[in-house]
Prior knowledge:
Helix 2 (24-45) packs antiparallel against helix 8 (116-122) and helix 4 (55-77) packs antiparallel against helix 6 (88-101).
Amino acid sequence: MPPQPAAPTSLRQRLARLYFGEDAAAIRFQFALMVIDLAIIAFFLAGPYLRDRPSYLVIDYLIAFWIAAELFAQWAIASSTRRMFAKPIVWVDLFVLCTLLFPQWLFNFGFLRVARIWAVAQRPVFKLMLRRLGLREQVDVVTAFINLFVFLFLVTGFVYTFFFYREDAGTGFIDAFYFTVATVTTTGFGDITLPGTFGKLTSIVTMIIGISLFVRLAQAIVRPYKVTFPCPECGLQRHDADAVHCKACGHILNIPDEGL
């Protein structure tokens, strides 16, 4: 029998094993975190419809407590504080935390909360689930789709906050989403436009980034599947799944088949 990994002896080791491990307990823990993330995202997306209800602030502060606890856990298991704060998602979580703690003052920046969707795709269990569902070769496609999805809702939140906030919450959000999709796809019906110079600049940036993400998604769909495996000789990262030699330097590769 292969030697069993030693049991973690400290809280930091146990947390690190739960966050990054691939045993049954770690997978259950990461899956639970992902489900909670999805519930939080659903609350954020429903925010325009719920913000006038008395329970809104209660849920808001509960989510703030949860995100603060997660940030503390990530800090506890990080090899260094500098490396932790080098991750963009950490800064997103910090800013989201501020919007939750001070909703009356930072509500205009609440649209950034949608970036939590991106955090779901960064969890190790996400790619593990794709592999177990037989979608190993579609990881890049799913990632590109998530990036486009996050961008659509970030822009929708931005447009709603700065251009449609005076309208009814439901109508304003739908108008903002309609404008975003029409702009990103360059359909440009023209029935909803953003006023002034700031509106024109917003439309330009939305079109440029949106088209880039669409192209990225199209490339991920049509290009051959490649695995990430650094060549020991030249460092080339991406190779064909059945590659025996590195295309850059000819070094013999030993790419794991991930059980397939």
